[in-house]
């Protein structure tokens, strides 16, 4: 179990791949996208 092991988190980091042990971190939508700034300006 180490850098050469395909099934471990450390092995995935070493290879630069993703999988069940090391899922991709999804980008959260920014605050500007959640609240449409242009829509808010029209409401006033």
Describe the overall structure.
This protein is mainly alpha-helical and 44 residues long. It has one domain (9-43). The protein is 41% helix and 0% strand. It has three helices and no strands. The longest helix is centred in the N-terminal third of the chain and has 7 residues, at 9-15. It starts with 8 loop residues before the first helix and ends with a helix. The mean pLDDT is 80.
Number of H- or I-type helical stretches:
3
Number of domains: 1
Please report the distance between the alpha carbons of the first and last residues. 61 Å
Q: What fraction strand?
A: under 5%
Region (Disordered): 1-44
Biased composition (Basic residues): 1-13
Protein name: RPS31 30S ribosomal protein S31
Keywords: Ribonucleoprotein, Ribosomal protein
Q: What is shown here, in short?
A:
Residues 1-44 are annotated as: Disordered. Helix content is 41%, strand content 0%.
């Amino acid at each position: 179990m180490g850098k050469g092991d395909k099934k471990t988190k450390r092995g995935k980091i070493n290879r630069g791949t993703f999988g069940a042990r090391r899922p991709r971190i999804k980008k959260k939508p920014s605050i500007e996208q959640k609240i449409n700034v242009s829509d808010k300006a029209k409401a006033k």
